[in-house]
From TrEMBL:
It comes from the Bacteria. Keywords: Signal. Residues 1-21 form the signal peptide. Gene3D superfamilies: Porin. This is Porin.
């Protein structure tokens, strides 16, 4: 009830502000369904055959066909207040959350000059190439960005960032410098899936930067972030090698090539938490009129496995996108997951099929 009141109040504010500000509404939606065709599950944890399609919000399919795991509706409100100042809010209702609407974004922007913009509020943490438009399925070719590569439990933050947009010779350049924190009081991935007990995950003293370079058919994106992690499980603070805190360092590189008909998408990431957690993905696609078939491979490997535990899994996927009308695309995708985790299997091996429609309006 409280969330509905907040949403109503925010909408009322934007509507009342329309007398002195330009207000624009836009939206996006995904209506997806899928099921596990075959899978091993993780018997020692009582987990039936499962395909974990989205780690942060635990979008998981089983052997019964379901629309809930990845279907969503989103509404974005943008208000141009004038003199370079604007406000943006994004509300998303996910099937995985029983369509309980949540604020994903809520921030102010101020244009300093032609090159620089400062923003403050709640935003998506820009770790990955697709982070900023992760929920907008229409914006990318697959059913979803590869789950092995997009596994982290924190995906939003509250803070301040500076955006840069410029031209360096023949290269178009974008940049993002950001700082802030995120306190996920009942983190869904850790609470419901990995630890199966209430888990509070804190990332503080976040400092990061993103550099994007594009020229002709080539696009590069480099990113780096540092943060300090605290964790509480069932109210008890977790110790990391005897300390209540640990520092993490994230590194990322995306390199995309697009020749109009053929394209290649790649992304490589490393999280250093004393040991390295490496993720990678590569995907190739071909555009033919309204049809875009594609294939891809993604992997996650935790190399610090001295105690015998850890994660090692990969996914091979093949799919088709059909842009059957403007602003809407039908997609179908087959995923084959191989879970080679050391002694702590994540979801086991699986083969699954998903299909659906992504649209923007």
């Amino acid at each position: 009830m409280k969330k509905r009141i907040i949403i109503f109040a925010l909408c009322s504010l934007f509507i009342s502000a329309s007398s002195f500000a330009e207000v624009r509404f836009s939206g996006f939606a995904s209506i997806n369904a899928g099921k596990v065709l075959s899978g091993s599950g993780v018997p020692q944890f009582g987990l039936e055959p499962t395909f974990l399609a989205d780690y942060p919000i635990v979008s998981a399919y089983d052997e019964d066909i379901s629309f809930s795991p990845e279907s969503l509706f989103g509404l974005q409100v943008y208000a141009d207040i004038g003199e370079g100042l604007s406000a943006t809010a994004q509300i998303v209702a996910r099937g995985a959350d029983d369509y309980d609407a949540q604020f994903e974004w809520a921030y102010l922007s101020y244009v300093i000059n032609d090159a620089w913009t400062v923003q403050a509020g709640k935003k998506r943490l820009p770790l990955f190439y697709y982070s900023d438009f992760y929920d907008v399925g229409y914006a990318y070719v697959w059913m979803r960005p590869p789950a092995d590569n997009y596994t982290w439990q924190i995906f939003n933050y509250e803070g301040v960032n500076f955006l840069y947009n410029g031209q360096w010779g023949d290269w178009s350049v974008t940049g993002n410098l950001y700082t802030g924190k995120e306190d996920s009081k009942e983190n869904r991935l850790l609470s419901e899936f990995f630890f199966q007990e209430p888990t509070r995950e804190i990332w503080k003293d976040i400092m990061g930067g993103v550099l994007g370079l594009s020229k002709d058919w080539l696009e590069l994106r480099l990113t780096h972030m540092r943060y300090t992690n605290e964790r509480f499980r069932s109210g008890e603070q977790t110790l990391f090698d005897g300390s209540t805190e640990r520092d993490g360092k994230f590194y990322g590189l995306a390199a995309n090539a697009d020749w109009g008909t053929w394209f290649v998408l790649t992304e490589f990431n490393r999280l250093d938490l004393g040991g390295n957690l490496d993720t990678a993905m590569v995907s190739v696609g071909y555009r033919h009129d309204d049809l875009t078939p594609y294939i891809g491979y993604s992997t996650f490997e935790q190399k610090d496995a001295d105690d015998g535990d850890g994660e090692d899994h990969n996914t091979t996927f093949i799919g088709l996108r059909w842009d059957f009308v403007p602003s809407a695309a039908f997609k179908v995708q087959f995923d084959k997951v191989k879970d080679n985790s050391f002694n702590l299997a994540v979801a086991g091996d699986s083969e699954s099929i998903t299909l659906g429609v992504d649209l923007v309006f």
